[in-house]
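Moderator note: this is an archived Q&A kept for reference. The question asked for a predicted structure of one protein chain; the sequence and the answer are reproduced below.
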Amino acid sequence: MLDYEKEAAIYDASRGGEARAEAATEAVLALIPARTGRLLDLGCGTGTVTRRLAAARPGLRVTGVDRARAMIRRSAALVPGAILRADCRQLPFPDATFDAVTSVWLLHLLADPADRRAVLTEVARVLRPGGTYVTTVDKARSHNVGSDIDAVLASRTRPPAADAPDIITAHATEAGLIPAGEGRFVGVGQGRSPRRTITDLGRGWFSTLPPGAPETAHFAELLSRLPDQDRPRADPVFRLRAYRKPE
């Protein structure tokens, strides 16, 4: 897993920045009822989505939580007084506090099923009856856009998708939540070029291969032969799932 204490400084610049945050916010809000009063943004990171959620609707009160101190410093500057440092597996809120909970690019980080179950259990606990949970799912698959880069990497050893839709739905069902809709949005500015992919592959992204492994060097060599080394390919399309807590 990435070290998000170190990643905070470059997170937005390397992942689409404000354009991506705007697309994500619009798609998330499309799945949240207009009457929503209090919203909890789990794994809020640098706060770019959190800030937009807070500004999107009059009267919407947004709280963001994250575990990484470096991320919290950035998000607290964007949304003063609304950010807390907390572990999403054990939230510091009473039962039935929020009308909605969101998690954008969080569940894919939780390889241990016990951690995913803990997060979904906490989501259900802090949601009010009738409340809505919206989360991204299948993040890794979203980056497969059918490009020449994807063709080169097709045979790599891939980690299992912790946030596969069927897995998340199963955890949500166990927690007492029921499916309530789907959505998607474009990861603006996140189309990868061959040269950038080589760099990311060297950091251990895209596969279970450790940086420096012979197979990693092999894929890097194949990627270096592709044309237009600095031209980004198509942007990924991220998927959302919504769940509701019965009244």
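Archived answer notes: Residues 58 and 218 are 53 Å apart (CA to CA).
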